[in-house]
Each structure stands twice: as C-alpha cells, then as structure tokens.
Amino acid sequence: MKEISVQSASRFEMIDITGTVRASVREEKIESGIVLVYTPHTTAAVTINENADPDVPRDLLAALDRAVPLSANYRHSEGNSAAHVKSSLVGASEMVIVENGRLVLGAWQSIFFCEFDGPRTRKVFIKFLK
Ligand code: ZN
Which stretches of the chain score pLDDT less than 70? Predict the structure, then answer.
C-alpha cells in the first residue's frame, strides 16, 4: 500500500490526483490489475469525473452545496455535518483498472480527491490488487 499526502487550500475543493496515481502504478510496475484509491477521512471523498473543462468540478461542488447546505438543523456539534453527508454521497474510494501498465480511464476522466471541510492535509491510500 502507498500513502500520499494531499494538501487542500480551501473549504471545498476537487484536487486532480490522476498524475500521482499514474506515477504509483509505474513505480510498482503493475502490468495488469486494479488500483484502489481510498481516503480514510469522513469529510472528504474520492471520485472520477471530467477535468478537461474546469467548470465541471466547479459545477459538481456547487451542486453538492445546493443539495447539502452548510446549515440545516444538523445535530452533530462539530459544525461540519454537510461535509460528512457529502463524503458519504460521493464515497471514500474509486477502483480503476490497470492494463498494459496504464490506468484505464476515459479520455475526459480524472481521479479527484474531494475536500469538503478544508483546508487540511489529507491522506489518500493507494492499494494495488494484482
Ligand atoms: Zn464532524
């Protein structure tokens, strides 16, 4: 398993970590298998979506914000319930196929770390299933 550190710069942010995952696949010399990208946090997530147009991650964050407002009579006293809800909606991990030493992603797909309660230093674990 490999651990990477991700530094978010704002409260809500989608950070493209595709390059880091790709580099890990190369380092491990994986020819064929699956890579699991997992974040062990309850107010963050991992997802795959488009990054060719930066408006897509921006729209995703805005839509999540409309669906899950910051305040809505939540009971959790830490004050970050919206971030917990978004984390569960989006999910903590993604699995990507590796074939011929390469991540099998669509032309417009990128792997994003999603920050919902930043800025913070976060962890992402990468596990290779060969
Ligand atoms: Zn909390």
Answer: none
